[in-house]
Amino acid sequence: HQQQRTSTRRKLLRPGEEKKSVICIEGNIASGKTTCLEYFSKTSNLEVLTEPVSKWRNIQGHNPLALMYQDPVRWGLTLQTYVQLTMLDRHLSTMSAPVRMMERSIYSAKYIFVENLYRSGKMPEVDFAVLSEWFDWITSNIDIPVDLIVYLQTTPQTCYERLTQRCREEEKVIPLEYLETIHQLYEDWLINQMSFKVPAPVLVIPANHDLQKMLHQYEEHRGKILMGSK
Ligand code: DCP
């Protein structure tokens, strides 16, 4: 109950204060989130926050992302604890424009990636319990405003091809099945809305197309995206 109350509570605006909006871009690994953010970064009065993936690849000289892919049972908790911290930090950072567009959210970190590690038997129950208690505490005690989710909907096959092309060292071990599982978790969360609470309205953008067509679609959806978050 408390969780629900906190997340639906709206900040009171002072006279003259403008309402700020937060748009989260969600989608499978290599679905094109970064391209979408780059495209909108040229919009005035809008700030873009990319995912802190560089931090996940280097924390004080360690690479928890690579460790997680090498041995998820041992290192899943390590990576996901750090992901949760860095996402929370992003959500809480002071906004420098009336509209913020950010890559993923603390919600997908938990509902998609942690859930996947746990369900596939790659995260011990005790690790999952610790992460879940952290997540529940954060989301019931801290206001994490999200006004619109833009879901870049792809097929796992398309993501697999893009992943192979971009050749990020840590990700070379990712099989198609991994992307299929992540895809299903996203569909159940945002489309079927049958797994976890959806924190904001969802705008679905088909994202299997080539770059030109994607940029064209972003332009077409510009109004909906920017107004949808109001
Ligand atoms: N990752 C993870 N756990 C999370 C979030 C991400 O294990 N909670 C991993 C998946 C990827 C890497 O981190 O290997 C980067 O993830 P993204 O899909 O978020 O970033 P991309 O650069 O792949 O996004 P895109 O290609 O859509 O721009």
What distinguishing features does this structure have?
single chain, 230 residues, alpha/beta, Rossmann fold, five-stranded parallel β-sheet, 10 helices, 5 strands, 54% helix, globular, disordered N terminus, binds 2'-deoxycytidine-5'-triphosphate
Structure commentary:
With 230 residues, the protein is of the alpha/beta class. It is globular, with a radius of gyration of 17 Å. The chain starts with a helix and ends with a helix. The protein has one domain: Rossmann fold (3-Layer(aba) Sandwich). 54% of the residues lie in helices and 12% in strands. A 5-stranded parallel sheet has the order 2-3-1-4-5, with helices on both faces. 2'-deoxycytidine-5'-triphosphate binds next to helix 2, helix 4 and helix 6.
Quick description:
With 230 residues, this protein is of the alpha/beta class.
List the helices and strands and how they pair.
Elements: H1 2-8, E1 21-27, H2 33-40, E2 46-49, H3 53-57, H4 64-70, H5 72-92, E3 99-103, H6 106-119, H7 125-141, E4 148-153, H8 156-166, H9 176-191, E5 202-206, H10 211-228
Helix pairs in contact: 1-7, 4-5, 5-6, 5-7, 6-7, 6-9, 8-9
The protein binds 2'-deoxycytidine-5'-triphosphate.
